[in-house]
Amino acid sequence: MKAYDGMYIDGAWRPAAGPDVIEVVGPADEQVIATVPAGTVEDVDAAVRAARAALPAWAATPPAERAARLAALRDQLHARRDEIAATVTAELGAPEKLSRTVHAGVPVAVAGSYAELASTYSFEEKIGNSAVYHEPVGVVAAITPWNYPLHQIVAKAAPALAAGCTIVVKPAENTPLVARIFAECVHEAGVPAGVFNLVTGLGAVAGQALAEHPDVDLLSFTGSTAVGRRIGAIAAGMVKRVALELGGKSANVILPSADLARAVNVGVANVMSNSGQTCSAWTRMLVHRDRYDEAVELAAAAAAKYGDRIGPLVSARQRDRVRGYIEKGVAEGARLVAGGPEAPRPQGWYVSPTVLADVTPDMTVAQEEIFGPVLCVLRYEDEDDALRIANGTVYGLAGAVWAGDEAEAAAFARRMETGQVDINGGRFNPLAPFGGYKQSGVGRELGVHGLTEYLQTKSLQF
User: Which residues are the active-site ones (predicted)?
Assistant: First the structure.
């Protein structure tokens, strides 16, 4: 076990203000692998003050120079990708292959995309007799989740830095180790002191202090809808900008003309990836009644193949929560066709890949975010019924549509109340805007739309 000390504040690792620490526990073996400081209100205040002091100079830095620092950051992340992957595997429990390709790989691409955008985006424009300037919003507070611990930091820090903002990041207490590596990469990339700051700590202490700090101009949060509501209320009371990426209950709609086997297999893989701990996972599979039984058989067979291929959940609490949802689904009438609530291994916080059939739209498991390797299969009568079910939750983050013809799938997708839809297994695009409708959030991440979240607009009339 390694005991880490200090917070990254104003360009250096500084001792924490208090003596308390957070134990980081490995989900696969339930052993403490490290400790990090538990940040206090004083630590948060020091970080925000450093960010505020660094803001004028960084905001005035030419975009080309900001782009150069982001390119250097991208290169640092690439050089340390093996260490990053190993760290995510240890603290999150993600399988090594997933850690290398997704957890370590995607942040490199995202950082690179903002290095490019910082050098090409038009921060000034002419509209009639007005000169319009897109300026940094100011000091950003970023509170990030544990499920994609590095990607979520990069998805906030990279556009904020590209925009000319300064930032304080509070990572999730479950997965703070990769955040420390990121701070080291920022330092080695030559980002000026105070532009990026890192405070580890508990949400109820450090997160709350960061959200309430009067010198923070924008709150960017990814996590549960319940916490997002609280952060939104704090921001409203102080008239602060917010960017909220929250929960999801995404529908995977398989239209009758689709390649059923491919749609089901890809859909199951999507749900099982990262042990189901993905807010945009297609956790509701909607199948026409004439093909329903076949789809259930295919889903059960596909899920069974993931028994030894997925990692544990991040914590005992999360494992118990997911098991509770499985039990509630069965109690409400769902049919268990794969997996179940029983522990698949004697050690580690594992949950078996689970498929629930005969799920109806009113069931708890069809309405609430489970955040584990659990797929619900629902039956629909016709396209209007499928659309009603797909749009019938408080969420609207992501989704998928499958059809024999892309135009048919796209026409259906355009009627879905959700921020991002994959057509016939469309590939991930790090430049496409990501974010939700309804209670899935406010604002967008990634690409140029993610950059504009960190800008405010000024016009001069001549």
Answer: 245
